[in-house]
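Duplicate of #3305? Posting structure anyway:
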């Protein structure tokens, strides 16, 4: 092989032989490409290092586009070759015959990790090419993916810059290329729609004129209507349809209204067939109005609304109906447990679950460190948050943030469950179970006090029990309706609480880890392939670590900050571990 073939094939020995025999490392092929061009585009790192040691020039233009080796490496997404060239002095601001600097090439081909590395090393994110296009404009024109454009905007790319010939902004470019993803991204990031181009066309006019196009998005149309005051001229019902705030409060209020109407219907003197018919009609109207009155995130917002509405009416029922008829001790128990329940619910709902948040400077340092280690990839780096992913973390698409020790996003509390609030969530589930038992006991005492049919004793016949139970429920339908809701909550809480305890104590895993076991290599033994958790310190010790409560006879609870744990240690058998010596009593 000649030296160019050896370079392309990665034959380091042959390259060394030819150079030692007198071949100039700065020689060029028929297209004026150097050896470094071919080494860079094929990611031949050892050969690149060898040529650098022999004094090869790094910024020599070559090829059809008269681009540098750095341009070639970026075009093919060779991150490690890019890192090696930049570390050894390659100039990322060099412009090829098309007028493109390195960041423009990375943006045009959608290489998010290379864009991040170039910006972190100091490349101007708003540098323009020979036609006035920025990297963000190249993303809008050439690449339909979300990640590169989102990264540029998060790093501070300007959205109002206008290119030379047409006077178009990034928004104009996205519209002309029918790039719905970038149009939505720019709108949500607050990009101006009022800047005219050389034809005196604003982005707003262009979007409004092509609203019937196949690539169009309803979110875009909705935003445009909000901007031009379209909603103000609509009837009330139409305004509700298009107003997210109104729809959100409709979503939150509807379960409470629904609960009240069902209870009122049950208390009427109508026959039960009529009551059932009216209830079914109400449910039908409820679902019929769902698209009009409720938010697009209905499945996320509605469970929390149901819980809050049920909780409100259950407390109203307890204090107005049940408390005056039951013992003081039972009421005191109910109020005490309610306080603990509300505390755990609030901490689960409003506390920081463990968001991984860093400053701009820390993000730059992280990008450079990971790139130099060859770890600037989705397993270790989040392209959305621009942070290094801690062990056991995951990016939550609903919260739009990485969460340390991520368990799941819970619609019942409207928040992620992670390192900081997981124990409060489990406490919340436990308190729901306990207060449900207390509530049922209160309903039984209420029946015994108010209703003519007493609650069946142990000596009652089995055939009598359904009759007595039915008569008690008919006695006060509102209280019975409250009891039904308590039972429904108990039914979903019991398996969820049991599952959480099983995962925490026995498996030493989160819900996310259990569902994605085979995506995380540290859960698989490298020799046997057996699935086991490297975080397992014994069943009792796992509970101690989770609750952070010290128990005599156990090791102190592990209080590590999971937002800062990025690697696991490795023992001699190549197995990952956190603590290799759990207390022998609890293994």
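Output from current build:
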């Amino acid at each position: 092989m000649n030296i160019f073939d050896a370079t392309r094939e990665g034959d380091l020995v042959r390259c060394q032989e030819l150079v030692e025999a007198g071949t100039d490392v700065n020689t060029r092929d028929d297209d004026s490409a150097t050896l470094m061009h071919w080494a860079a585009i094929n990611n031949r790192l050892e050969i690149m290092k060898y040529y650098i040691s022999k004094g090869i020039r790094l910024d020599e233009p070559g090829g059809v586009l008269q681009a540098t080796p750095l341009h070639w490496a970026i075009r093919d997404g060779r991150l490690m070759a890019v890192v090696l060239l930049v570390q050894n002095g390659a100039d990322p601001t060099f412009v090829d015959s098309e007028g493109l600097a390195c960041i423009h090439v990375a943006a045009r081909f959608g290489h998010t990790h290379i864009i991040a590395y170039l910006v972190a090393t100091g490349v101007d994110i708003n540098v323009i090419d020979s036609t006035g296009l920025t990297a963000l404009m190249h993303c809008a024109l050439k690449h339909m993916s979300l990640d590169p454009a989102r990264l540029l905007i998060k790093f501070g790319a300007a959205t109002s810059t206008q290119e030379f010939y047409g006077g178009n902004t990034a928004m104009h470019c996205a519209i002309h290329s029918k790039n719905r993803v970038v149009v939505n991204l720019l709108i949500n990031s607050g990009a101006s729609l009022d800047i005219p181009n050389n034809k005196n066309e604003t982005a707003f006019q262009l979007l409004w004129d092509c609203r019937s196009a196949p690539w169009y998005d309803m979110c875009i149309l909705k935003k445009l209507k909000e901007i031009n005051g379209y909603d103000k001229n609509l009837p009330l019902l139409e305004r509700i349809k298009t107003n997210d705030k109104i729809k959100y409060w409709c979503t939150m209020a509807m379960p409470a209204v629904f609960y009240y109407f069902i209870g009122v219907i049950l208390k009427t003197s109508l026959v039960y067939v009529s009551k059932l018919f009216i209830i079914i009609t109400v449910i039908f109207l409820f679902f019929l109005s769902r698209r009009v009155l409720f938010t697009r995130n209905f499945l996320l917002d509605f469970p929390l609304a149901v819980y809050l509405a049920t909780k409100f009416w259950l407390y109203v029922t307890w204090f107005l109906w049940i408390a005056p008829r039951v013992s003081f001790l039972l009421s005191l128990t109910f109020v005490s447990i309610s306080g603990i329940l509300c505390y755990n619910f609030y901490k689960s709902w409003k506390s920081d679950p463990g968001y991984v948040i860093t400053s701009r400077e820390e993000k730059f340092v992280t990008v450079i460190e990971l790139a130099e280690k060859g770890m600037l990839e989705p397993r270790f780096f989040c392209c959305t948050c621009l942070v290094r992913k801690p062990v056991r973390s995951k990016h939550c698409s609903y919260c739009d943030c990485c969460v340390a020790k991520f368990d799941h996003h819970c619609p019942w509390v409207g928040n992620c469950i992670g390192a900081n609030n997981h124990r409060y969530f489990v406490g919340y589930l436990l308190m729901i179970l306990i207060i449900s038992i207390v509530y049922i006991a209160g309903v039984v005492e209420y029946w015994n006090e108010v209703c003519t049919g007493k609650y069946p004793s142990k000596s009652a016949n089995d055939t009598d029990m359904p009759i007595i139970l039915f008569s008690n429920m008919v006695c006060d339908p509102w209280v019975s309706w409250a009891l039904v809701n308590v039972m429904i909550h108990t039914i979903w809480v019991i398996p969820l609480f049991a599952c959480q305890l099983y995962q925490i104590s026995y498996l030493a895993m989160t819900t996310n880890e259990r569902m994605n076991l085979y995506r995380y290599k540290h859960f698989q033994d490298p020799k046997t392939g057996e699935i086991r958790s490297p975080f397992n310190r014994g069943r009792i010790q796992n509970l101690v670590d989770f609750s952070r409560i010290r128990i005599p006879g156990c090791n102190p609870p592990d209080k590590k900050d999971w937002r800062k744990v990025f690697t696991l240690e490795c023992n001699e058998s190549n197995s990952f571990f956190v603590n290799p010596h759990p207390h022998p009593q609890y293994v």
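Confirmed duplicate; merging threads. Residues 477-507 form the longest helix (31 residues). The mean pLDDT is 86.
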